[in-house]
Specification:
The protein has one domain: 2,3-Dihydroxybiphenyl 1,2-Dioxygenase, domain 1 (Roll), CATH 3.10.180. The strands form 3 sheets. An 8-stranded mixed beta sheet has the order 2-3-4-1-15-18-17-16, with helices on one face. The protein has an 8-stranded mixed beta sheet with strand order 6-7-8-5-11-14-13-12. Strand 17 and strand 18 form a beta hairpin. By secondary structure, it is of the alpha+beta class. The protein has 5 helices and 18 strands. Helix content is 19%, strand content 36%. Keywords: Metal-binding.
């Protein structure tokens, strides 16, 4: 099953604020492997397939550095089509001398790094859903060491890395939030997601269609963490895609019923979670 298309609701695009567009573009093209779809003096839309924008970066005026211990982006996560694609990007990172983290989450194998502005990035591949373990409605996930020897046995050493493959999608987003009770209500009763894993009292993982998670939510920056300044480097917004306008209209009504603010901008709808993370609602 493809968890990033209709009838599921999923994250399609992440929009970031950066200090220097030229520096950010060099990183996202040469290190991560994006292609530029559109560019202005202060913005760039990045793609892998030449038509779908997965990441938008914007150079802010009067920008301030990313502050610690606030709400906002923990990381956005790029989902690769195959394990061989993950092996190839590991080889690429090794070839350019890039340091990165890694983990085996049981449902997936993942790499972790940050862009030059400190925005967190995960690059991962999913194990087959039939391999995921579910207990009492929750999917089992872990933070185990990644077996690089086994992973790299899956790479063709003669095949050169050529950037992110066209089938790459925005797999999920993981956010710092200020608390979890109201946040859970917002994302489940408002936006229509289902909790699929609870990491103690510190994190929630939510999805539609029984994916292991389309969104992660944590309080690791502290309960009561403040919203960062508007001109801070970091997350500007992210876009959720609903199956159709009927479903989205139902979500808009649910958001209003729970007291969440919804605005309309040029035919698009936007809201923000209780921690100030801005969300665009599309169909």
């Amino acid at each position: 099953m493809n968890f990033h298309r209709e009838p599921n609701t999923y994250v399609e695009q992440v929009n970031l604020k950066v200090r220097n567009l030229e520096r950010a573009l060099k990183f996202y093209q040469e290190v991560i492997g994006f292609k530029v779809l559109e560019q202005t003096k202060k913005t760039a839309n990045l793609t892998t397939d030449g038509k779908t924008v997965l990441l938008s970066i914007e150079q802010q005026d009067n920008v301030v550095p990313m502050l610690g211990k606030t709400t906002g982006l923990y990381h956005f996560a790029l989902l690769l089509p195959t394990r061989s694609d993950l092996a190839r990007i590991v080889q690429h990172f090794t070839d350019i001398g890039l340091r990165f983290g890694s983990s085996d989450h049981l449902v997936s194998e993942a790499l972790y790094l940050s862009d030059p502005d400190g925005n967190g990035i995960e690059i991962y591949r999913d194990r087959a859903p039939l391999e995921w373990e579910w207990n009492n409605g929750e999917v089992e996930m872990a933070v185990d060491p990644l077996n690089f020897r086994d992973l790299l046995s899956d790479v063709n050493q003669q095949q050169a890395w050529n950037g992110l493959p066209a089938g790459t999608v925005m797999g999920h987003i993981h956010l710092h939030v200020s608390e979890l009770r109201k946040t859970e209500d917002f994302y489940t009763k408002g936006l229509g997601f289902e909790v699929v894993n609870r990491y103690g009292t510190q994190a929630l993982f939510i999805s539609t269609g029984k994916y292991h998670h389309h969104i992660g939510l944590n309080t690791w920056n502290g309960v009561g963490a403040p919203t960062p300044p508007e001109n801070s480097i970091g997350l500007k917004s992210f876009a959720l895609i609903y199956p159709n306008e009927t479903v989205r209209d139902h979500v808009l009504a649910n958001l209003k019923n729970i007291g969440a603010s919804v605005t309309e901008e040029n035919g698009a709808f936007a809201t923000a979670d209780p921690s100030g993370n801005r969300i665009l609602l599309k169909a």
